[in-house]
Amino acid sequence: MNTLSYVTVDVFTSSRFEGNPLAVISDARGLSDAAMQKIATEFNYSEVTFVLPPENPENSARVRIFTPTMEIPFAGHPNVGTAFVLGQQAEIFGKPVGEKLRFEEKAGIVEVGLNRSSGRVTSAAIRAPQPLTIGDTITRETIAGCISLDPGVIATTSHAPVFASVGLNFAVAELNGLGALAAARPNLAGFQAAAGRQTTSGHDFSLFVYVRTSENPWHIRARMFAPLDNVPEDPATGSASAALAAYIVSLAPDADMNVGITIEQGVEMGRRSIIALDVVKAGGVVTDVMISGSCVPVMRGEITLHD
């Protein structure tokens, strides 16, 4: 009987059973692509990570990220959680674990900093692997059809709904208040129609909706829906948070900024998550986005591969 060890952690939280759960296979050598996908589907978390030796020995590891339906090039909470898990180890594939890690991913190199308290890793910060890119705008009717709302609650004062990415593509849209955010319900037919109209490259149509106030514009409440990836709602989405944070900073009139942004997500699911972002803008261009958060270990066990 062949078995494979795994660890699960809750990411972007300091409280167990909140945040976004992640399963980490810290040594995935010998697994086929098909086996990785089957394991990710079995967990049915928003993502599962599979850690392999790096192709370049200067890097720490190669990390592959699978949703229940597909492999994706980058995601926030899988990187934060994987770094947290690997940071508990003395070595990664024979190399000592330092304070900084470098992950090889399909989107590029992801740089990670580990934060420790009393010698133990408590949180991690990752740098978005790609610069901000903005895609096509999306109609209010399309957004409303995805989440069962009236188009009138889609706010367009700051920006129209649009595709944004710092490594993984999301539709982002602002709503006009917490009432609309709470009322949002994913409509599979709406998402299928939206994906059919999508021309921007990326994975299936995934929607990140948010609310912010003029009194506290850098504290944001958000929800993320991706039913086409078998993720009806995600409690914490670092890659979407980073794309949104970079985008709204890019829209600000100041040419040079260094902004700390907090995104609170998962509240409506009972899995409150806190995602911290640091965005640097220089000469009118966003040059750096850091995503950070705490993690809590939850489970460990073994997967039976063959009888």
Automatic annotation (TrEMBL):
Q: Which GO terms describe its cellular component?
A: cytoplasm
Task: Classify the source by domain of life.
Answer: Bacteria
Active site, UniProt feature: 47
Query: What Pfam families does this protein map onto?
Result: PhzC-PhzF (PF02567)
**Gene Ontology MF terms in the entry:** isomerase activity
Which Gene3D superfamilies does this chain map to? Diaminopimelate Epimerase, Chain A, domain 1
- Coiled-coil features, chain-numbered ranges: none
Q: Which family does it belong to?
A: Belongs to the PhzF family.
Q: What's the protein name?
A: PhzF family phenazine biosynthesis protein
Q: Which organism is it from?
A: Rhizobium lentis
Lineage summary: Bacteria, Pseudomonadati, Pseudomonadota, Alphaproteobacteria, Hyphomicrobiales
